[in-house]
Design a protein that fits this description.
Layout lengths: L1 E10 L2 E11 L4 E5 L6 H8 L7 E6 L2 E2 L4 H7 E4 L12 H11 L4 H14 L15 H13 L5 E5 L7 H16 L3 E6 L2 H7 L2 E6 L2 E7 H8 L4 H9 L5
Parallel strand pairs: 3-8, 3-9, 6-7, 7-8
Antiparallel strand pairs: 1-2, 1-4, 4-5, 9-10
Helix pairs in contact: 3-4, 3-5
């Protein structure tokens, strides 16, 4: 479970997130919507204890990011958009294994997890190749596997399909469904409304650091009087929220 409680984040005189409150239930895939610069990544960095909230608090599985950051880190896996940060001279397997060891997993368990994730993400053809020459999509698959290697209860995914082609994105969505069936709690950040529509039943919509909506997709459509999520998104961006 993730509970965001009146969270704000300031960088000097700039307020990136203001008084954000929403809740993600255990075993739920929850969408965090907003255009680039809306505050999605800042919010997820606070969840991951990389940034400290200026005000408010976030609880992950009952642990406070302010007061119990180590307990939070033990329970989360996180993937940020942009540069995936892999070691180019290591193979895909070695990159994933390195992060598994950082979480204290025994080598046999690490290899078991790598083999499983490699099959799910269809990485077997390149799992033992060095990542330096990989395509963006191949690197993204390795980064996703690295996020999941320690089998976290709470998974934070910031624009996870960046660089993935249609086939790879479909594989990813199937994996998210599988993780949900295993009882994982997943926060999925995106500005791709179609993807959110396929994966999530509830969302939080953020614009300029403020919460514009939190609840079910059906309620969102009803509030804005349209089934087109792209139209809803643009209404909020253009200041037409109800």
């Amino acid at each position: 479970m993730i509970e965001v409680k009146a969270v704000s984040k300031q960088f000097g005189t700039i307020t990136a997130v203001r008084d954000l409150t929403f809740r993600v239930e255990e075993g739920e895939v929850y969408g965090l919507l907003g255009e680039n610069g809306a505050g999605k990544t800042t919010t997820m960095r606070m969840m991951a204890t990389i940034l400290a909230p200026t005000a408010g608090d976030i609880e992950i599985s009952g642990f406070s990011v302010r007061h119990e950051p180590l307990e939070v880190r033990r329970r989360i896996g996180i993937l940020f958009g942009g540069e995936v940060g892999l070691y180019s001279r290591l193979t895909a397997r070695e990159n994933i294994a390195y992060f598994g060891s950082l979480y204290g997993l025994p080598p046999s368990r690490v290899q078991e997890r790598i083999d499983s994730l490699s099959r799910i993400l269809e990485m077997e053809p390149f799992i033992d190749r060095r990542v330096g020459a990989f395509s963006r999509g191949m690197k993204q698959k390795v980064a996703i596997a690295r996020t999941l290697v320690h089998d976290p209860d709470v998974i934070l995914l910031d624009e996870p399909t960046t660089g993935l082609d249609v086939t790879a994105a479909t594989i990813f969505r199937r994996m998210v469904t599988r993780l949900q069936e295993e009882g994982k709690t997943i926060l999925f950040s995106s500005h791709n409304m179609g993807e959110i529509n396929k994966l999530c039943k509830r969302v939080a919509l953020i614009h300029k650091g403020r919460l514009r909506f939190s609840g079910g997709l059906d309620a969102l459509r009803k509030q804005f009087g349209t089934d087109d999520l792209d139209d809803i998104f643009m209404a909020v961006v253009e200041g037409g929220e109800h």
